[in-house]
């Protein structure tokens, strides 16, 4: 068992006040490596993935400048995870990080992107981000995009569901996919 610290920054009136919750005992989550190791296409690329995160300390101050409390947070995007994600998104022409799988999407937005890609008859790989919280949080930092699904075309982040739908309607997605499949 590991002990985890959690904090929440809530709003009271016009000011933001940090709230610190107590330690929570929980089993350690599976590592991003363990999740991706189960994916046969990526197992070789991630043999070196570390389960540790980089540690950052955050301090909160009162309005008069006194230090109130501090909490240490783990950055989900370690150097090893970034390197692995670089390899994963470039290993296939089209990679979709989503909730669930293309055979069994676990959210409507993920299902929408899967249906668009299937309707265009393109081959694409999916990674289920629900299997690992470190992977899910690390991807948010990696792409600078807070939501899922996340579509990558030729190693570049294309967008989430809304962007993919708009690009599909305008024909831009079809052009991008055609370029990717011709290269």
UniProtKB/TrEMBL annotation:
Keyword terms: 2Fe-2S, Iron, Iron-sulfur, Metal-binding, Redox-active center
Domain of life: Eukaryota
InterPro entries listed in its UniProt record: Glutaredoxin, GRX_PICOT-like, Monothiol_GRX-rel, Thioredoxin-like_sf
Record domain Glutaredoxin: where: 94-157
The keyword Metal-binding appears for this protein: yes
Keyword Isomerase set for record: no
One Gene Ontology molecular-function label: metal ion binding
Entries under PROSITE patterns matching the protein: GLUTAREDOXIN_2
Ranges annotated as spanning the membrane: none
Entry's family note: Belongs to the glutaredoxin family. CGFS subfamily.
Cited PANTHER family: GLUTAREDOXIN FAMILY MEMBER, MONOTHIOL GLUTAREDOXIN-S14, CHLOROPLASTIC
Record-given protein name: Glutaredoxin domain-containing protein
Lineage: Eukaryota, Viridiplantae, Streptophyta, Embryophyta, Tracheophyta
């Amino acid at each position: 068992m590991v002990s985890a610290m959690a904090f929440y920054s809530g709003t009271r009136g016009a000011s933001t006040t940090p709230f610190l919750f107590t330690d929570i005992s929980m089993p350690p989550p599976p590592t991003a490596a363990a999740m991706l190791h189960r994916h046969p296409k990526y197992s070789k690329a991630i043999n070196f993935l570390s389960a540790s995160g980089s540690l950052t300390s955050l301090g909160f101050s009162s309005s008069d400048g006194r230090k109130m409390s501090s909490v240490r947070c783990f950055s989900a995007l370690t150097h090893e995870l970034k390197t692995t994600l670089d390899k994963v998104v470039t290993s296939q022409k089209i990679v979709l990080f989503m909730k669930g799988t293309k055979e069994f999407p676990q959210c409507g937005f993920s299902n929408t992107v899967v249906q668009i890609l299937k309707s265009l008859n393109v081959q694409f790989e999916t990674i289920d981000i629900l299997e690992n919280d470190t992977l899910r949080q690390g991807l948010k930092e990696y792409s600078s995009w807070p939501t899922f699904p996340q579509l990558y075309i030729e190693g570049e982040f294309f967008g989430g569901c809304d962007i993919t739908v708009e690009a599909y309607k305008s024909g831009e997605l079809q052009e991008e996919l055609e370029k990717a499949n011709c290269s």
